[in-house]
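look at this:
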Amino acid sequence: MGLRIEINHEDPLASVRKRGPQVDGGGRLAHAALLVNHRDDPRSTPPCVTDHDAYYIGLSRDIAVVSALPAVGVSILTVPQITDNAICLRRWDFSETSQTVSLLTLDHGLIRGLAKGSKRPDGRFSGGFDPLTLGQVTLIIKAGKDLATMTEWHLSEVYWAARQHLIANRAGIYMVDLAHRMLKDQDPHPEVFHALDSALRACDERERIGIETLIFQWRLMDACGYRPELNRDAGTGEPLDDSLDVVRFSPIQGGIIESTQAGDAVKVRRGTIDLLRSVAEGDFVKAASDVEGVPRANRLLAVCFRSLLGEAPEAMQWAFRELKSS
């Protein structure tokens, strides 16, 4: 059985994927032909290292490490693997048996990758990836590659309510689509992961969908660097006139502005601003108590995301039927 490896000629240690190498009593690899790639001259034909030239060093995760010389005081090279909790945001069929996916991971942020053979019933991918699911993923990120390589996916939970009920479905699809569009690759934001997980779980309770969606939108906007200015004029920096019952909010300028300023500003009730202040301060109980204000605040943040994206995606229009592309 052939094993492809790369060897560092300054330190003749190489790492290969484990294929069940057999080791004889002397520590040498038995019945394995190793194909070594020259780094000195990539154009040359790789030489073959025979079984009696290769010394078995050990295993690190699923990597078998071998050397062309006996291992004395050398460091082990491995292919880095990541295992993390993840929410599946999107998936596309790549072939009859493979998928490309977009995952929001807890510790590594947004990851886009290729899962070869994910639809085969071999147990490594729990039957494949589906949006609105939670699981544990193992993957390899290679420098210079647009897509990570998914090696395992263990499904742990399906957010059933977001699949079965219309209001929950609108909210769930909107949130995962928004996360996919707004977050940068491999930029971790655990607070966004937890907010999305909490919001999708809350879809089981209709009365919680609105406030959880609002918390998610706020945390996503904050994580992306677009936290709205609610305490000063976003245009001038001057203190706000708290005696006004209606203020003007500019998605482009990112907050409340003077009523004389033109542009994209929309009229917003003072109560909606106070509700968003409660969310910003983490007082979610107080924010949720304004039952009529929560939908208005959700629409306002959706308008802000529409401005940032330059359009109202279909998922946004599905969740907020009154919003159209600007």
